[in-house]
Inverse folding.
């Protein structure tokens, strides 16, 4: 088990050498549309911004770091029979670290087309909403998987991906113990490949 960090570091080093210094920094920003997989939630638009490293050419690894805001609207009448509270908007913001593995199907000088997938971990989330934060505490760590498609035109990048939450993004109190709150998100980002 002690050899694992050395093996992992060696594999990354070999990949870097094999790619002949094909490492690109990709700062990007975009829009998220998300909702927990619960009928009481309606999707709203949020945002994300950050950067990733694309390591490799035909096959690539792309770790990143993004600050993300997910926005939704909860219908308290659907979630819990609460007639005095109707719809409430809330935002959830935090840091996310995706690690995508991908393949470039088209790898021309002026145009590239790729597909990718991989895990993502999120942390440091905070939730804003008057009644929402009284009932829910945001989970400290959230796991997800993502898959997407992207194009490069010259040095501009455009990506569209979908994320499936694997863990609840809220610690719910006893009244909601039978509910599930894994997040689902659709993301579009525009970036620059440096």
């Amino acid at each position: 088990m002690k050899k694992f960090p050395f093996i992992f570091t060696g594999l990354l080093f070999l990949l870097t050498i094999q790619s002949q210094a094909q490492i690109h920094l990709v700062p990007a920003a975009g829009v998220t549309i998300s909702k927990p997989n619960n009928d009481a939630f309606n999707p709203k638009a949020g945002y994300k911004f950050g950067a990733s490293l694309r390591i490799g050419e035909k096959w690539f690894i792309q770790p990143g770091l993004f600050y993300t805001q997910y926005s939704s609207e909860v219908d308290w009448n659907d979630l819990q029979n609460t007639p005095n509270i109707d719809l409430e908007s809330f935002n959830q913001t935090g840091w996310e670290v995706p690690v995508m593995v991908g393949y470039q199907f088209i790898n021309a000088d002026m145009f590239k087309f790729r597909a990718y997938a991989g895990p993502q971990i999120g942390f440091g989330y905070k939730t804003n909403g008057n009644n929402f934060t009284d009932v829910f505490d945001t989970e400290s760590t959230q796991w997800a998987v993502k898959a997407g498609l992207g194009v490069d035109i010259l040095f501009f990048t455009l990506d569209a991906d979908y994320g499936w939450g694997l863990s609840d993004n809220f610690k719910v109190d006893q009244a909601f113990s039978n509910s599930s709150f894994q997040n689902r998100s659709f993301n579009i980002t525009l970036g620059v490949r440096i």
Notes: The helical segments are 4-18, 76-79, 132-135. The longest strand covers residues 87-107.
